Amino acid sequence: MVFDPNTNGNASRHDNVQDDQPGGKYGYRLGHKLGEYQIPDVVLDSPNRKIKVITIGAGISGILMSYLIQKHGENIQHVVYEKNGDIGGTWLENRYPGCACDVPSHAYAFAFALYPDWPKYLSPSEDIFRYLDRVVECFGLRKQMVFNSTVISCNWNEDESQWYVRIKNSETGEIREDVANIVIGANGILNSWKFPEEVEGLHSFEGRLIHTARWPTDFAEEQWKGRRVAVIGSGATSMQVIPTMQPHVEKMDIFVRTPVWFAEFADHSGDNFDYERETMKSDTKALVHKAKFIEDKLNTAAGLRAFMVHSAEARMIREHFTNRMRKFIHRDDIFEQLLPNFAVGCRRLTPGNPYMRAVQKENVQLHRGAVTKVTPSTIIASNGDEVEVDTIICATGFDVSFRPPFSVVGRNGISLQEKWKRVPEGYLSVGVPDIPNYFTVVGPSFPIANGSVMGPLQAVGRYILKAIQKMQRENIASMAPKQSVTDQFNEHAQAWMVGTAWADSGCRSWYKDNNTGRVNAIWPGSSLHFCELIAEPRYEDFEIQYSNKHNVWEFLGLGFTRNMMAENGDLSPYMALDAIDGKFVGYEPDKDAEDARVRRMADMVHDGPQKKGNEEGAAAERMPFSNGSIGAMH
């Protein structure tokens, strides 16, 4: 007989349950009570408690969280606040000439939305935005998003276990407040651009001063003609800007403080062939195969060993990249200026074939040295070079301190900005001690350069969703990583970095603190290593506080499971086809041997053990039941 709470005399209907409290989903109360503790009307593993989640940023990470919560979450109110007027994040903001992703297109897509129709192997920003827009439209994700809304502060209320978030409307200037149980920092680290303020007199320049992350719409190809342009910076952005602008300007001076190693990717770096695209449109298996082929190339063990400076792989890859540079760069003076004297991978590997061709053109002058001073009409390098220019382009990157561009104040008034002012130490890239119910999608020690990027990003998304669901289903008020566990992880991470390319003192890189040498941005292992570790949250690493401070088992509720209450719930989930061991299917033992074993057991049970000189009797005496006990069960 199946017990049905619908007909039980002890159960009574009630309709007055608060949405943010456990209960109310099934509308029954047993009425069981012991002292002040009363059984709530919840069933095990049910999203009976409404959860409010605020995500900051509608770039790739915010889109991912919107999809996961909409697809797999229940009873979750999700709001995404985005400072810009549309989705896309860095792919909306960065529209400088030649802007493109340096990750192969098929590897820069969500696993749930692989795209067969990428026009280029390395996609320009416009194509990436178009893809993200297609994902958002396909799944109807914009309804979760509020645009032109800049988060300016997040303050934790310990008594309520809630975040109070202040948001400024960028169009009207109006400031309002929202409240949530959980905040997800999906704002990334490549969104807060910066001029090289250490350059003396930078803003005294009377010509055109441009940062690549804020490229003016009125400065296109037709405006470049006749220009004398200086480019500051030697990272991925300058690798793209320089070959795009070089053919159109009168003169280009490039200032390189630290060179880079030029990479090559997977199978090719040109257009995606039309026949491949047409095949993948009609054959999903071919599409998955293509994406996996590229991802496999990014995730090899040899690839990780290449970042270990004393490995054979590191020596081989350095020799290969050196020979490759020599193949492209025919001028000895330029080759010597651009050949790095540090390990491959210390700075981000960048596709650079067009760049290597451009720097050898007659209208280009390469200056090896940092820019130290700018006058109203000239730019001066540390090697003494001074050139007259009318345009300065700063390809100088972003604030990569990991401190969010808004105030975050957690438990006991602890400020995240202050906590990370000296060293950004997080927990597995996803959390921060003393900042409860706050998750970072790309935090310190994310595998940003250790292989695949989208794989780990999606792993973090699933991790956060699992944490939200645990909080919801177990009525958890707050959770934050333990400081001791976080400290131990960071000790391990920094020890692992010793002897890797990322810790090479010979280069400057945004992966590390260039003053102390501490590597802040890299995971201590491969991308797959990261994904496997965070596949299941280690809740033992968290300080967890329950909403019911007197009884953490409140979530056990009525004693029913979710399947028992569902109309077509599986009432025997332990019986399943995949539970059957194929070895047992069709197994036929030796019949005579089987009969003998059965007779021997029957004799042992019914006749009892022999008292002396009988090995079988002695064995029977050691059986965990006494003579006749089985018979008594019949």
Automatic annotation (TrEMBL):
Keyword check for Endoplasmic reticulum: no
Positions of the UniProt region annotated as Disordered: 1-24, 605-634
InterPro entries hit by this protein: FAD-bind_Monooxygenase_sf, FAD/NAD-bd_sf, Flavin_mOase-like
Any one GO molecular-function label of the UniProt entry: flavin adenine dinucleotide binding
Basic and acidic residues bias (residue ranges): 605-615
UniProt biased composition (Polar residues): 1-11
Record-linked SUPFAM superfamilies: FAD/NAD(P)-binding domain (SSF51905)
Annotated keywords: FAD, Flavoprotein, Monooxygenase, Oxidoreductase
PANTHER family hit by this protein: FAD-BINDING MONOOXYGENASE STCW, L-ORNITHINE N(5)-MONOOXYGENASE-RELATED
Family per similarity comment: Belongs to the FAD-binding monooxygenase family.
Protein name: Flavin-binding monooxygenase
Organism in which the protein naturally occurs: Colletotrichum kahawae (Coffee berry disease fungus)
